[in-house]
Design goal:
By secondary structure, the chain is of the alpha+beta class. It has helices at residues 3-15, 17-31, 40-68, 72-85, 108-127, 157-161, 221-225, 249-281, 315-319, 324-334; strands at residues 97-103, 132-139, 145-152, 166-173, 182-193, 208-213, 229-234, 239-243, 291-296, 302-305, 311-312. The protein has 3 domains: 3-85, Release factor (Methane Monooxygenase Hydroxylase, Chain G, domain 1); 97-194 and 290-334, Alpha-Beta Plaits, CATH 3.30.70.1660; 205-280, Double Stranded RNA Binding Domain (2-Layer Sandwich), CATH 3.30.160.20. 45% of the residues lie in helices and 21% in strands. It has an 8-stranded mixed beta sheet with strand order 2-3-1-5-4-9-10-11. Strand 7 (229-234) and strand 8 (239-243) form a beta hairpin.
Length: 335
């Protein structure tokens, strides 16, 4: 057995290929039942899951064919991508993701940097074929954005993106200063799993304060005439989420619940990790966010991850969405 065949077998074992095939058969049977389509939203989610599983199985079969025909270069490239998934064994690693970007201190400079980060991630999502939808955005007064939230609707998106969370630092000549002075800006990236199952995070109706208002986002005259936008406050925790990108209030209500579940899960995870740290090393001071990556555009060009050491002198290419090397290194080193 060749090295590629050995690697492929290991990937199939870790991904539990037989269970994936059984899941495909089960979903196909469910889709043939008359009651399956009574809940169109749930049916659509299951059909997407079926399509993702079928694609995964087909790609593994394609790698096997490439190995058999001697196309080692192509087989290696595809196998390298699949091996990354075997590192993702966390509870929500196979989930779709919610990515939020918040500008830090620094006024228009920081808001412009937040917009640059948004563009970088959307370019990356396009390059890997991940569908996404923008949920909420607050524009800056002069330029850029104060914050934005995007749902990434692809399997394993959370697993691959979760280590992008943290503070991102930009150093450049200021485009907003006539003297072209060097400016340092910060933005915070949050990455959460999409938690659709109500049982994962329990929400009590008495704990929820729903508020409705007119959307300021795109959506035509209908959005402006009625209160389609949703603000949801979780009274016990004080967490506030909003959704206004959708045309209808019910759609925004559903998205707000998803965002709230994800935020509550994140809070639980932070509490758990803080307790572990306190037990092991003593309580550490909470911070706005740990700097994970620097993007230097002046006086030289360099993007460097402070945790993995991964770096690139092609700063413009990275900001244009070429994040593969950084994300793959995070998955291999930080899992």
């Amino acid at each position: 057995m060749t090295d590629l065949e050995t690697r492929l077998k290991a990937v199939k074992d870790k991904l539990k290929i037989n269970q994936l095939k059984e899941k495909v058969v089960d979903l196909q049977k469910q889709s043939g039942e008359p009651s399956f389509w009574q809940n169109h939203e749930l049916a659509a989610e299951k059909m997407k899951e079926l399509a993702d599983l079928q694609k995964e199985i087909e790609q593994l079969e394609q790698i096997e064919q490439l190995i058999q025909t001697g196309d080692e270069v192509q087989a290696t490239r595809l196998l390298d991508k699949f091996e990354l998934k075997t590192f993702l064994s966390g509870h929500f690693d196979s989930s779709m993701a919610i990515v939020s970007i918040h500008s830090g201190q620094g006024g228009v400079e920081a808001m412009d940097w937040a917009m640059m980060l948004k563009r970088m991630y959307l370019k990356y999502f396009d390059s890997v074929g991940w569908p996404y939808e923008e949920i909420e955005e607050i524009s800056g007064e002069e330029a850029g954005i104060k914050s934005t939230t995007v749902k990434v609707n692809a399997a394993y998106a959370y697993g691959f993106l979760k280590h992008e969370a943290g503070t991102h630092r930009l150093v450049r000549q200021s485009p907003f200063n006539a003297d072209g002075l060097r400016q340092t800006s910060f933005a915070l990236v949050e990455v959460l799993p999409q938690i659709k199952e109500a049982g994962e995070i329990e929400l009590k109706n008495d704990d929820l304060d729903w508020q409705f208002f007119r959307s300021s986002s795109q959506g035509g005259q209908n959005v402006q005439k009625v209160s389609t936008a949703v603000r949801l406050i979780h009274k016990p925790s004080g967490i506030v989420v909003t959704s206004q990108a959708q045309r209808y209030q019910e759609q925004n209500r559903k998205i707000a619940l998803e965002l709230l579940r994800s935020k509550l899960w994140e809070q639980q995870e932070k509490d758990r990790k803080e307790q572990q740290t306190e037990l092991k090393e003593g309580r550490t001071q909470a911070s706005w966010g740990s700097q994970i990556r620097s993007y230097v555009l002046h006086p030289y060009k360099l993007v460097k991850d402070t945790r993995t050491g991964q770096e690139s002198s092609s700063a413009e290419a990275v900001l244009d969405g070429r994040l593969d090397e950084f994300i793959e290194t995070e998955v291999r080193q930080l899992e």
